[in-house]
User: Fold this.
Amino acid sequence: AQSVTQLDSHVSVSEGTPVLLRCNYSSSYSPSLFWYVQHPNKGLQLLLKYTSAATLVKGINGFEAEFKKSETSFHLTKPSAHMSDAAEYFCVVSVGSARQLTFGSGTQLTVLP
Amino acid sequence: GAVVSQHPSWVICKSGTSVKIECRSLDFQATTMFWYRQFPKQSLMLMATSNEGSKATYEQGVEKDKFLINHASLTLSTLTVTSAHPEDSSFYICSAHTTVSSYEQYFGPGTRLTVT
Assistant:
């Protein structure tokens, strides 16, 4: 079985400050991990993915995440928040092929001016 | 590449009627498509997995007679909500799995269903 826990339901940062969205996973096998972003009433956009290659993964829009097996974590970071980053973020885990994804509960990111 | 579309993007229907939502992979063949449901301010819940040419596999608790899924071709899957009720109002999102990249699903923009 696999599961993912997003540790914060809401995160609020000021524009220009760093962003940290936390995610822990549980998996019996080597997982694939993803971060998706969802803007209001929109579908999901893939930010980045980890699939057993480099543990530090760089994604779009300046986001990156580090896979830490010892901590079973896959936290999402960005050095400097932009107003357009305000959205819902989902951490997602999959084992084997991407035939079935398990979603975290989501983190709502608010960016203050 | 790897674009998934959904139609309609927003639909309002009356209680007791049926509504069909289409999910299309525009530039690739999708052997497997997935249907998710998302309630306001909640995460996505997988409803069913649809393989081209075969019956869909429904998740526990999802009524297969109410949510009819058809995956007639490698580029089209449909979800029909039959005898809709207000509690079926939700955001429905499909995704497609391509054999080219086994690690990723591509998501459609979603369909907002409101049952009055």
In short: The radius of gyration of chain A is 13 Å. Chain A has a mean pLDDT of 91. Chain A touches chain B at residues 32, 34, 36, 41-46, 49, 51, 90, 94, 97-101, 103-106, 108 (CB under 8 Å).
